[in-house]
From TrEMBL:
Family, similarity comment: Belongs to the SCO1/2 family.
Any Pfam family matching the protein: SCO1-SenC
Alphabetical keyword list: Copper, Disulfide bond, Metal-binding
Full protein name: SCO family protein
Alphabetized Gene3D superfamilies for the sequence: Glutaredoxin
Native source organism of the sequence: Algibacter mikhailovii
Residue ranges annotated for the Thioredoxin domain, each copy included: 33-198
Disulphide bridges: 71-75
Amino-acid positions noted as binding Cu cation in the UniProt annotation, renumbered to this chain: 71, 75, 161
């Protein structure tokens, strides 16, 4: 006598993500329909003494972060991981990087240049910028929502120190935020870049 066994297996339905949300406030609540918050106009000076503005990144997907050259803590990890992103997209003209110093009173153009050379920054791909402190801190807090302490305290005198990588689309809207010190989050960022590139 032959016995036939039937096994029922419930398959998981995995829905592919085909679009990223917009982040329109410091709460980082994902919103799927209407983009409301665009990175405001900026003008800073890069490691080569050249002006960097929104136009530099017009039509580009870019990753922004905040650091300072003498930072002994999280900044070396952030820079190392930005370097990995640079390597992954070094031949992709659609992807750029932007690192803002939060210590502009110390991080002069020559210091940024030395830091760039030490970390093998590709000038056409990755801008390290300095400038007016108020402008840098303002764009960190109200442009990229990168300062969680300010969100909580509203104390403008606080020093900015954040591990966030912020993903900005070609139109200047925030589409993702990631912990730049954690490798798995950096990989998630790269997956999201792929989705962003394929968005219609």
């Amino acid at each position: 006598m032959a016995m036939i066994l039937f096994a029922c297996k419930k398959e998981k339905q995995v829905q592919a993500v085909t679009k990223l949300p917009y982040f329109n406030s410091a709460a980082f609540t994902p919103e799927w329909e209407v983009p409301k918050h665009k990175i405001p106009p900026f003008s800073f000076t890069n490691q080569n003494g050249l002006q960097v503005t929104n136009d530099t990144y017009k039509g580009k997907i870019y990753i922004a972060d905040f650091f300072f050259t003498s930072c002994p803590g999280i900044c070396p990890k952030l820079t190392k991981n930005m370097g990995k992103i640079q390597e992954a997209y070094k031949n992709d003209p659609d992807i750029m990087l932007l690192s803002h110093t939060v210590m502009p009173w110390r991080d002069s153009v020559p210091l940024l240049k030395a830091y760039a050379e030490k970390n093998k920054v590709l000038d056409a791909k990755w801008h390290l910028v300095t400038g007016d402190k108020d402008a840098l801190y303002s764009i960190a807090r109200t442009g990229y929502f990168a300062d969680e302490d300010f969100t909580k305290t509203q104390d403008a005198s606080n020093f900015i120190h954040t591990e966030n990588f912020v993903l900005v689309d070609k139109a200047g809207y925030i589409r993702g935020v990631y912990n730049g010190t954690i490798e798995i989050d950096v990989l998630r960022l790269q997956r999201h870049i792929k989705i962003l590139k394929e968005e219609i």
